Amino acid sequence: MKIHKYDTVIVGAGGAGMRAAIESTKRSRTAVLTKLYPTRSHTGAAQGGMAAALANVEEDNWEWHTFDTIKGGDYLVDQDAAEILAKEAIDSVLDLEKMGLPFNRTPDGTIDQRRFGGHSRNHGEAPVRRSCYASDRTGHMILQTLYQNCVKEGVEFFNEFYVLDLLLQDVDGVKKSAGVVAYELATGEIHVFQAKAIIFASGGTGKFFKVTSNAHTLTGDGQAAAYRRGLPLEDMEFFQFHPTGIWRMGILLTEGARGEGGILRNKDGERFMEKYAPVMKDLASRDVVSRSIYTEIREGRGCGPDGDHVYLDLTHLPPEQLDAKLPDITEFARTYLGIEPYTDPIPIQPTAHYAMGGIPTNVEGEVLADNTTVVPGLYAAGEVACVSVHGANRLGTNSLLDINVFGRRAGIAAAEYSATADFVELPEDPAKLVADQVERLRNSTGNERVAELRKELQECMDANVMVFRTEQTIKTAVEKIAELRERYRNVAIQDKGKRFNTDLLEAVELGNLLDLAEVMAVSALARKESRGGHYREDYPNRDDVNFMRHTMAYREVGADGSESIRLDYKPVVQTRYQPMERKY
Amino acid sequence: MSTPTLDKHSAALDAAENDASHLISVTFRIRRFNPEVAEDASWQDFQLEIDPKERVLDALHKIKWDQDGSLTFRRSCAHGICGSDAMRINGRNRLACKTLIKDINPEKPITVEAIKGLTVLKDLVVDMEPFFQAYRDVMPFLITTGNEPTRERRQSAEDRERFDDTTKCILCAACTTSCPVFWNDGQYFGPAAIVNAHRFIFDSRDEGGEQRLEILNDKDGVWRCRTTFNCTDACPRGIEVTKAIQEVKRALITRRF
Predict the structure, then answer these.
(1) Rounded to a whole number, what is the distance in Å from the CA of A522 to chain B's nearest CA?
(2) Taking Cα atoms as reference points, which of A564, A525, A546 lies closest to residue A236?
(3) Which residues of chain A are within 8 Å of residue B132 when distances are taken between CB atoms?
(4) Residue ranges of the domains in chain A?
């Protein structure tokens, strides 16, 4: 075991982690730990753009953006946080441009903007051009630009270091963060990083679904580490299903395709979104569009031999426009489906995309141990966190914004904290939990296999807690997950070595997915209403009287070692926007 | 209501929507190396039943998950944008997640080995550090002087287009490790680093072009390129890599960029 000491440690090197690192490296001795290489992070898969009311192409202002974000989140958004997000969006985009990001340009050389789902002029009047974009690879450009600037600032990376544990210590009755424990993939060695400030920026957890736009590596490692150490997870029942994933594969096809004029059609060729969202049509918010797609499919208007998908039709758009504005997604259609999007519609279905919930933080990125108490020295930003700016449903282009606004905030706050704070003493035998876990997996003689359990988990989640949920389906999921968690105790791996043991890594990741799937299902079962991405067929309406509140899920361990989940609730911060019925 | 437009259904669309997967039997011949087990690398064959519409990455997963958990490779996004899974498939550098089995003649054994010119650490995993060091050495970030503007820097659409091709790079190393010059001399910067220098040299907002050109004027710089076009063929993003290198060479001669 090796021990390292840094002022600030950042876990994860996607957009939020690297945006934080650029700030904290200037102010404090910083290490960034990532289980991949920074440029492999899934920020790079984001396509359509980053929202900011620059008003470069038409009238816009950040107040309209704030309103759209709150309405898009079905009023579960903390309104003070949404205001910060929309207000700081403008500088956030300009900062990236100054760092070198090659945005598409207007004829007069400013940053070009396009339409995106749920973003509107004057509180819902009509779609507005608010998404700042670089072709259909905005996320790629953000990831590259941030990495380039990390190189420029000399940010210190520990690549392929997989953080498995968060060390918390009780100091005079206050829970404080002391460090993290990481597993070095190349050697199998365990490293303890003692730090005054720690930022979790480790991304999402979409891999518990089968059809997902998420990378294989998005297994909720940060959320699971915090949860196992007794910290709450907020609003985990809210998961976004992006309307347009490639059928069966789940590969993302940007909403920007509809922003450029693409249309969703059923088997009769009908533009069905006109029925469900008369004003915004194909550019309604994602939860609305995904439900509409599945309604079409359930009512027998789906496409293909099994009627299990619909079409994204781009065939009426000029090929030059597709080449200039949507080159990557049209190439995906050619590569993976063998079709030509100039002339063929693209078979799509909703794909599990984004966790609105996560580790609760305040607007400075400080992690909360309950509804109000901050954990000194611990921060989170990006998809792993829940501020909450996305509420029950995130608007497209608000996640690239979130990672930049709150990544920056967390980076500054953490570095300022570590400038004055002392190190918290490490617990005795700090690596024990991780060492035991790794040894147990390596030496297990059980008869369960990682791939089989993961497959059963993913199939169960797709079948029971996706776009439509009922008490019965959620209960089925809860029972199945309990069974899988039991079987996971007997999981064994084949690779017993120390060098690049990805077999071991996948087993650890599965453990994280199982923990988080359980939290999601249990949180969803208790929320007896429909709001944003959480749709209960048995409770089809939003219930502001009983459920205008955030879910806070805690892991409880009984005296006999038995585990359970305790649910609590946290009020939503409301400033100036009264909840209204949501129509697009 | 709008008019239906989907009266025409191409054969390609019908094929894409036909889910009746017909599994075929394929042999994967994989170059294995694990110094914890044996000093030398060796080929190992795996048989599997798989839908030819699936990716090589899917096949590697099936082998790892169902047959041999010790098979080791890097991957993440699985659709060609993260750059983790560049490998040599049937002797050509490709991304395993962008290569469909039907496109590489599954009737004969499909060979898979690590990319060449970087030290193999285990199976298909190589040491990427020299590759990223070359990237860092070309100063891959916007260099400007003077006061920052309050708003964005202006750039015309034409100026933006000038370097569009090289912004697509995902640093997968497929180009660099297909280059015979790089195989023979690991000191050569390699195509990917030059591509990333190009991305800034030809950006109208950048003022570090001269510095980068001097770095690439070095004995291990652009002049080592022998224009074999392997890099262009290998690039999974379709970047005209050789052309970018030629443009950097020309800029060095004319000092105009």
Answers:
(1) 29
(2) A525
(3) 37
(4) 1-238+356-429, 253-350, 432-539
Catalytic annotation, residues of A: 286
Q: Give the closest of B82, B142, B157 to A99, CB-based.
A: B142
Q: Which homologous superfamily does the CATH classification assign to the domain defined by B22-126?
A: Beta-grasp domain (3.10.20.30)
Residue B244 bridge partners (DSSP):
none
Task: Kindly determine whether residue B69 and residue A494, on different chains, have CB atoms separated by under 8 Å.
Answer: yes
Structural domain A253-350, CATH architecture: Alpha-Beta Complex (3.90)
Superfamily of domain B129-146+159-254: Alpha-helical ferredoxin (1.10.1060.10)
Contact A289, A243 (CB under 8 A): yes
Residues of chain B with Cβ-Cβ distance to A45 below 8 Å are: 77, 79, 81-82
| Mean pLDDT, rounded, of chain B | 94
Residues from chain A contacting residue B125 (CB–CB below 8 Å): 500
State the CATH class of domain A432-539: mainly alpha
Class of domain A1-238+356-429: alpha beta
Residue of A nearest to B18 (CA): A305
Confidence of residue A474 (pLDDT cuts 50, 70, 90): very high
Instruction: State ipTM.
Output: 0.96
Could you identify the residue written with the tokens 């009746």?
B20
Classify A6 as helix, strand or coil: strand
Report domain extents, chain B.
22-126, 129-146+159-254
CB pairs under 8 A between A and B: 198
- In this prediction, residues B41-55 reach a mean pLDDT of 96
Q: Is the pTM higher than 0.80? A: yes
Angle between helices B209-216 and B191-201 (to 10 degrees): 160
List, for residues A490-511, the tens digit of each pLDDT value: 999 999 999 999 999 999 999 9
DSSP symbol at B176: G
Q: What is the pLDDT of residues A414-431, one digit of tens each?
A: 999 999 999 999 999 999
CA-to-CA distance for A529 and A547, rounded, in angstroms? 7
B142 → chain A, closest CA residue? A100
Residue B248 has pLDDT above 70, yes or no: yes
Beta bridge partners of A260: none
Mean pLDDT of A349-362: 98
Residues of B (149-208) whose Cβ lies below 8 Å from A: 149, 151-157, 160, 163-164, 167-171, 200, 203, 205-206
Q: How far apart are CA B11 and CA B105, in angstroms?
A: 22
- The answer to whether the Cβ–Cβ distance between A151 and B141 falls below 8 Å is yes
pLDDT digits (tens, 9 = 90+) for A225-278: 999 999 999 999 999 999 999 999 999 999 999 999 999 999 999 999 999 999
Task: Say whether B129-146+159-254 and B22-126 share the same fold.
Answer: no
pLDDT for res B75: 98
- Structure tokens given for B164: 């569009």
Distance from CA of B185 to the nearest CA of A (A): 25
Write the pLDDT tens digit of every residue in A70-93: 999 999 999 999 999 999 999 999
Whether B6 shows a pLDDT value over 80: the answer reads: no
Q: Which residue matches tokens 């998950």?
A: B65
Residue B12 Cα, gap to closest chain A Cα (Å):
5
Q: Does A40 touch chain B (CB under 8 A)?
A: yes
Residue with tokens 């002339």: A343
